[in-house]
Amino acid sequence: MHNQGRDMRVPLSTAAAAAAAVLLLASCGSGDGGDSGAAASGELSGEGSGDSCTIEAEVPIGAVLSLTGAAASYGESQQRGLDLAAAQLAEKGGVTYDLRIEDDQTDPRQGITLFDQFVSDGVSLIIGPTLSNAAVQADPIAQEAGVPVLGISNTAAGVTEIGDYVFRNSLTEQAVIPQTIATATEEYGLQDVVVMYSNDDAFTESGYEAFAAALEEQGVTVSETITFSKADTDFRALLTQAQQSDPDALVVSALIEAAIPLVTQARELGIDVPIIGGNGFNNPRLMADAGQAAEGVVVGAAWNSASDNPENAAFLADFAAEYDSQPDQFAAQAYAGLMLVDQAVRANCAADRESIKQALGELENVPTVLGEFSIDENRDAVHPAVVQIVQNGTFAVLE
Amino acid sequence: MQQLLNGIFIGSIYALFAIGFTLVFGILDRLNLAHPAVFAASAFVGIELVERGGLSLWAALPIVFVFGAVLGLVIERLAFRPLKGRADAHFAGLISSIALAGMLIALLQWRYGPDTRRFPAGSFPETRFEVVGAQVTLAQVVILAVSLTLMVGLTYMVTRTRLGRGMRAVAENPTAARVLGVNVDRITAVTFAISSALGAVAGVLFAINVNTAQLGMGAAIELKGLAVIIVGGMGSLPGALIGGLVLGLAEVFAVQYIGSSWRDVIAFGLLFLILLVRPQGLLGARRVREV
């Protein structure tokens, strides 16, 4: 019948058109309609101060988390941490929070939409978004509208440089990674390593830069740098390439979705050297899903799960009681985040945007699950970090 | 050597996926864009069979094959048959299969949630071989064997059996085939069933290979599948096999010799180059469409 050469043109151009249609559909996905603006700022101040502060109206707080998509496992943890904190604050009384959690589907465009929505809904503060690359796109909206933002997991450089309304309680990679590399170098006598990172994500890219700087500082040679995409799942070709330079360790900046198959396949190929990961590795699912392969993975972390400070001990017990599982760092930072917001609100006993912004910037030596917590002049978090190693299926402190 | 094997393993999965794609295209002249959704769905179903049903990995494969076949029949019945009389049946089928793919993925998300899923720990055989200095797991060997068996079996069926003759007749000219007593509707349905069954097995094998099943895994391989069937020659089965292997090897050697950042540029650039030299694809014929 048809001549093939001519015939294939039709399906191809239609395929392109169809693909475009799919993209279009995806981009105008959901976005909850509006329960409209909450209390005007007048009702958002109250009597007393600190623990005795009482505010009549519920304080509206928006949270933009990635509950579906590639970062869903982080978002889910964060949601649990926030819910737990909100429940405990409601129990404590005085100031109550109307916490509205929305899903950005791990899509920065969706994050922008949600920020717009929260700004016009009149929330006092926005928590999130989960990923740094969403933060660099969405935070400017809040900055422009004068709504304070508290990042609870943004660790990429430059997020708080967006403006004076942008804060975070998550330690940057730049704060954690030098300590990780220094400890690992001392422990394993590293001389040359292979660095691998996904170069299509702001978070893993800035992690890579921090690793590169820290390695140089410690005088460790990088014999090869290998990049991949955050959506990749087959790393055998890359790992074989890495194996050929016979490194003392693999240094990897990747999200957990990539980290698990990467670690598994590395061990399958017979790579037995330590694997040093960035913040993305800092997730109990690494051990749950990679099993034996995860042994010997070294991760710097902002939260020491084994810390015995009273806030942390209580948090571990409450979390386990509520969800019947162990919290991870994302849950801890989310929990700490809402608690810090509460501190800031109580400091002036006012929950309008300006007072929260001003009080957040002045937080100093607040006891939290993360340890003694302060906000520095760049609106970044200051608190102790910890270097962990996977041993017998759990994170232990590497010393 | 290790890289060569890496390329062959991943390439054989690309090929198996692409063969399902190209089968429907070659015989029925339709592009079934629900194929990637079948790929993803079967990976999740395969994991559930192992996790809940307690089956071994290999016992799950035939069940997934049947699951894929049923899904293929559903796709044909819902997305293609109602539209077959239309003058723009190509285009309409394409769109309706995308819609169906979207629904399938949404169902998956409802059933399994958004998280990446993996086979339970310990469901993989620990056996490892060393082949000329390269590490190979038993799972990888089985993946390759299953892919090749299915591809050879399909080629045999199309060229040697009565059903295959019917398929080729339909590919040649549906109207003439009908006149000659071929049940075109049945052939169409069977073609979709086989195509989706192959896509389903490819999905599980992929999930076994990287121990990861994600909702987006179909979308990630879709473009590669399209590239493979175009390079292999639209509608050509051996072409899809070779195209898959070429793409797998191109990716691996791009990493090895040029740099990991250039992988997709090199791999797809190479495919582009092949098309410039042979616009009909490696094994695509300029004469009548083959199966």
From TrEMBL, chain A:
Alphabetized Pfam families for the sequence: Peripla_BP_6
Lineage: Bacteria, Bacillati, Actinomycetota, Actinomycetes, Geodermatophilales
Gene3D superfamilies recorded: 3.40.50.2300
Top-level taxon of origin: Bacteria
PROSITE patterns: PROKAR_LIPOPROTEIN
Family: Belongs to the leucine-binding protein family.
Ranges for domain Leucine-binding protein: 58-392
Protein name: Amino acid/amide ABC transporter substrate-binding protein, HAAT family (TC 3.A.1.4.-)
GO biological-process terms attached to the record: amino acid transport
Matching CDD domains: PBP1_ABC_HAAT-like
InterPro entries, A to Z: BCAA_transport, Leu-bd, Leu_Ile_Val-bd, Peripla_BP_I
Organism from which the protein derives: Geodermatophilus africanus
PANTHER family, A to Z: LEUCINE-SPECIFIC-BINDING PROTEIN (PTHR30483), PERIPLASMIC BINDING PROTEIN OF ABC TRANSPORTER FOR NATURAL AMINO ACIDS (PTHR30483:SF6)
Keywords assigned: Amino-acid transport, Signal, Transport
SUPFAM superfamilies: Periplasmic binding protein-like I
Automatic annotation (TrEMBL), chain B:
Alphabetical UniProt keywords: Amino-acid transport, Cell inner membrane, Cell membrane, Membrane, Transmembrane, Transmembrane helix, Transport
Domain of life: Bacteria
GO-annotated biological processes: D-alanine transmembrane transport; L-alanine transport; L-isoleucine import across plasma membrane
Compartment(s): Cell membrane
Pfam families: BPD_transp_2
Single GO MF descriptor: L-phenylalanine transmembrane transporter activity
GO cellular component: plasma membrane
Membrane topology: Multi-pass membrane protein
TM region positions: 7-28, 57-79, 91-112, 132-158, 187-208, 265-285
InterPro entries named in the record: ABC_transp_permease (IPR001851), BCAA_transport_permease (IPR052157)
Family named by the database record: Belongs to the binding-protein-dependent transport system permease family. LivHM subfamily.
PANTHER family: BRANCHED-CHAIN AMINO ACID TRANSPORT SYSTEM PERMEASE PROTEIN LIVH, HIGH-AFFINITY BRANCHED-CHAIN AMINO ACID TRANSPORT SYSTEM PERMEASE PROTEIN LIVH
Protein name: Amino acid/amide ABC transporter membrane protein 1, HAAT family (TC 3.A.1.4.-)
